[in-house]
């Protein structure tokens, strides 16, 4: 019987031509047998997401760090092709002189419903003045902001910019801006958990964590102990990880501690995350699935 989840909140879309030589050079250091990135086109994503009800998809503007550079038009076209499955987020790079024009176009013309930003990948700190108009626009227009939080294998990506502690001042300054911390801020997951616990407008998600099972176990136990499991959402980071292995990685997390007195990740926690619904939490009153 196939494993299922409600919403994959972290799915990357790109064309073959969006994958640059830099990507293959870097990924070979961390996944020697990985080679080039798997397909990330709309049809591939749709097939992969067969066992989830909804998928939040976004392009990557990470040409000089990861080596993948796609765009919002690609995201919008995928949503138009599969509107019952995909919800599109815009991708921003604050270094681009037309960043705000592209953002307004993505939200108001392409009708994308959120934004994805990678401070560590673009080399732009969350406190950078170039982000002020972005924050103001998103807060004014009820648009959530998903951010890559945590480390990365990319060499040209300042690690400190992936620390979740940098989110708190922004969350306080923009209390109506919903901020979603991807990857639980790994390996500094405690920072992610305590910031999310303190700030009502900060949420987090567990994409691309299951393949480090001991770290993943500790993340989930800490989240239970701090009582923030209602603020954690499920995702894959496809094509970095697939739906079936991501669900299975969560459901089998306790196997590594069988026969010990260590605490267990509860069934309630697992089911709450797998069936989490960002559309009930990331927007203030307006459900993007209804307009």
Which term fits the overall shape? globular
| Tally of separate helices | 11
Q: Please identify the top-level CATH class.
A: Alpha Beta
Number of structurally distinct domains: 1
Mean pLDDT figure? 95
Strand order of the largest sheet: 1-2-5-6-7-8-9-10
What level of helicity do the residues show?
25-40%
How are helices and strands ordered from N to C? Answer: EHHEEEHEHEHHEHEHEHEHH
Radius of gyration from CA coordinates: 18 Å
At CATH level 2, the architecture is: Alpha-Beta Barrel
Low-confidence stretches: none
Q: End-to-end distance, in Å?
A: 33 Å
Sheet with the most strands, sense and barrel status: 8 strands, parallel
CATH topology: TIM Barrel
Query: CATH homologous superfamily, by name?
Result: Metal-dependent hydrolases
Beta-strand residue percentage: 5-15%
SSE-based structural type: alpha/beta
Total number of β-strand segments? 10
Q: How does this model look, in words?
A:
The protein is an alpha/beta fold. The chain has a single domain (5-290), classed as Metal-dependent hydrolases (TIM Barrel). It has helices at 21-30, 42-48, 72-81, 99-109, 119-122, 132-140, 167-173, 189-198, 213-225, 243-251, 267-274, and strands at residues 5-12, 52-58, 61-62, 68-69, 86-91, 114-117, 145-148, 179-182, 202-205, 232-233. The strands form two sheets. It has an eight-stranded parallel beta sheet. Strand 7, helix 7 and strand 8 form a beta-alpha-beta unit. The protein is globular. The mean pLDDT is 95. InterPro entries: ACMSD, Amidohydro-rel, Metal_Hydrolase.
């Amino acid at each position: 019987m196939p494993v299922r989840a409600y919403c994959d909140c972290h799915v990357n879309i790109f064309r073959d031509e969006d994958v640059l030589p830099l990507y293959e050079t870097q990924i070979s250091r961390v996944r020697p047998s990985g080679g080039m990135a798997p397909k990330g086109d709309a049809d591939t994503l749709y097939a992969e997401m067969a066992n989830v009800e909804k998928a939040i998809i976004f392009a990557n503007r990470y040409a000089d760090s990861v080596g993948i550079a796609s765009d919002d038009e690609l995201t919008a076209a995928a949503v138009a092709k599969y509107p019952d499955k995909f919800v599109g987020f815009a991708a921003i790079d604050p270094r681009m002189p037309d960043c705000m024009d592209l953002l307004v176009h993505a939200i108001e013309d392409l009708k994308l419903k959120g934004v994805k930003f990678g401070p560590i990948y673009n080399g732009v700190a969350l406190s950078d003045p170039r982000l002020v108009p972005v924050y103001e626009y998103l807060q004014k227009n009820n648009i959530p902001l998903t951010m890559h939080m945590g480390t990365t294998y990319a060499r040209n990506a300042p690690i400190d910019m992936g620390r979740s502690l940098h989110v708190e001042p922004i969350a306080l300054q923009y209390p109506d801006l919903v901020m979603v911390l991807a990857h639980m801020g790994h390996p500094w997951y405690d920072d992610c958990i305590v910031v999310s616990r303190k700030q009502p407008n900060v949420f987090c998600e567990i994409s691309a964590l299951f393949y480090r099972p001991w770290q993943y176990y500790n993340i989930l136990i800490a989240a239970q102990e701090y009582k923030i499991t209602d603020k954690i959402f499920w995702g894959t980071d496809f094509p970095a990880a697939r739906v079936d292995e991501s669900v299975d990685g969560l459901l089998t997390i306790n196997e590594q501690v069988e026969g010990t007195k260590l605490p267990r990740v509860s069934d309630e926690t697992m089911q709450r995350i797998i069936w989490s619904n960002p559309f009930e939490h990331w927007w203030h009153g307006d459900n993007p699935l209804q307009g």
